[in-house]
Amino acid sequence: MFKRNVLASAVIAASMTSYAQAQIEEVVVTATKRAASTQDIAVAVSALGQESLEQLGVSNFSDYVIQLPGVTAGGSGPGQNSVYIRGIASTTPNLTTSGVAGLAPNVAMYLDEQPLSQPGRNLDVYAADIARVEVLKGPQGTLFGASSQAGTIRLITNKPDPSGISGELKMGAAWTNNGDPSDNVEGVLNIPITNNFTARAVVYVDKKGGYIDNVAGTRSVAESSVFSAGVPAGIDFVEANNGNRTKENFNDTTYSGTRLSGLWQINDEWELLVGAAQQTIDTEGVFFVDPELDDLEIQRFTRDSLEDSYDSFNWTLTGELGDLDMVYTGAFTDREANQFVDYTDYLYVGAYVPYYICDVAYYASTPSGTCQSPAMFTKNTVTSEFSSHELRFSTDQSSKLRATFGAFYSDLELRELSDFTYPGGELIINAAGSANGYGPSVSNQASSASRKGVWPEGVIFVNDVLRTDEQYAVFGELSYDLSDQLSLTVGARWYDVEVDLKGSAAGAGSTGGKGAGDDGINEAGADRDLDVLFSSSGAAGLDTASTDGVIGKVSLAWTPVDDVLLYATWSEGFRPGLLNRPGGASDGAGYSVPYAIDTDEVTSYEFGWKVDMLDNTLRFNGSVFLVDIERLQASVFEPNISNLFFAENAANAEVKGIEGDVTWMPASVSGLSVNGSFSILDTEITDVLVPTNTVKKGDSLAFAPELQFTVQTRYEWSIESGALAHVMGHMSYSDEAYTDIISERRYALDSWAIVGLTAGVTEDAWTAEVYIDNLTDERAEVSGNANFNKQRTTVSRPRTAGMRFSYRF
User: Fold this and answer.
1) pTM score, two decimals?
2) What is the strand order of the sheet 45-49 is part of?
3) Which pLDDT belongs to residue 596?
4) 3-class secondary structure, 227
């Protein structure tokens, strides 16, 4: 009963359909692991199709997040983001420790059948030759696993087309107000090689000009949190001066990559789809600003850059085994991110910074000496290898009783080598007056995950860890038609997840550098160096955080009349725990950092509707929901407990909300389409589980604006040449949101509205458009953090005008 007459070619966006049509097209998605119309599945799913992506100029992660109410992001630029759905967010990982201490994502990112989620660094896949972006809101754990606690985002690529040779060439150029120009080119070629094998190739380069200025400034250790009560006389402070690093529009980015796929139609029942992809993101500068400075300004004192590359391979075998449809899909991704991060801001929270770069006994009655420049930086090398395998079966989906079931395995191996470099550390002298700078230290062979031998000059602290996340799961969903109008679906997933951490987090002196008694600034001579070892003989003998269990789903769908679907769903989701580097550290008042934190779990209650009206010219889909969150994980930084970030099950929370999508194609005005979507949230911390006074009962969750909405209006008409002209206006709005649930790092991001205009002409095989994005030049505060007690706000690109051209053959 839930089948409609749809064509596989109708894979387009729900919100942005072909406006030349008199009625709203059906939208085919694979949100339930099988192709189905969005109007026939009891799942809250939104989609941006290829036509929508092109019309809105969407190319990367930050572009499509703005177009999806109920979806937000925390992070600091391309390849450095975490995504959130329905406001289920606590803290965004500190990028310099995302591998060793980053929480597992609670929203799964997929490229076709391939999961891509990683702590703090979701793959920022460029939207080249993408058929659609599917957003599944609410827990999707029974079908999509551990990281689908709040939802799942899937990027679906265009597949090889055996019907004939085809291709497309796209190019564009843009100019940003107070920024550098941008340009892009993309090519697609589809070729049937033989009667049963078709190949498809995609290549792209997109250079995005910068728009943030690195302006002149100075810093000194006098601004350290150590001297918050006043700076003693007699200390010589060497200033960090960034005069040689100032630059306008210093945050330029280049996306470049290729993707190849091949479809082998083995016979009438079996086919094999294989693919390979490579992408590199090169960035300079940062993508956040300092609200205390002038417009679009920041002060950075050392190098900021990122080269983020991945190679990916995937394969999907589809066929029939008797009455069962079978799919086996596997994937392997090899990723390497090399990044330099200016760490000077750590000065504002790092109580031990003077310890490493001052030769001052500042607790003495007459302190004297020198504090070197605090121009510190971190060099991060994060490599990951991720493999996944899934085997699933489904029965005849047109029968009264139907099922989808299977097994899943994934293995993530992530190596993080972070060198925290304090260049002044090698210049300090000890209390006796002899030169005795820090380093170079030597890695402990037993505790090293990547480096063997001497640390680089100036390196004071190192994260050298190997993190592995391994998952096993068995899953299934069973649907039964209780009547012609009523259907029941039940699902469950058994899972077993292990998160291992091996290696060490070590400070200079603990493995061969300057040792106890040489501290210089510590009058008592106490050694504050740190060496946390993760191995079978490490802290408390703990090197694994493991969890297993079963989550479930029950959904009842009712079609009282044609074109109306009502559903009610109860579902569960979870996120695995992890190990803490400073496990066992105590505040001296009875609280100790746990060695491992528990999973956090959500239970969702949802009622939804999908309605087509007025002879299929008006569509209204929506849902109301309540989500209970238990043991919400958060990252905490409490210097009186540990000078390291640690994770904790910080709170219980609740989310209430309503969301919807509306599409209207008025029959009285041919060529006009109006559509929009909205999300209204009410989030609250209901119980505080940590005694550190860092979380407040009654606070809202992070990145959870009370109201978000988008509106797009497009009008198409024929012109004398026979071509089709169009104009489109679009607007996205977000209420204010908070950056964290941890009070010391929590601040409000202002509400914002972004408006854009597009006009163009399509004739036969080509399309030409001009556009203006961010027409009002709004500084939309889309993300931010105050990890180091200084607000750093990520803002949208300023007003940008451009043109784009495409040719299809």
Assistant:
1) 0.90
2) 45-49, 130-137, 151-157, 107-111, 114-115
3) 84
4) helix
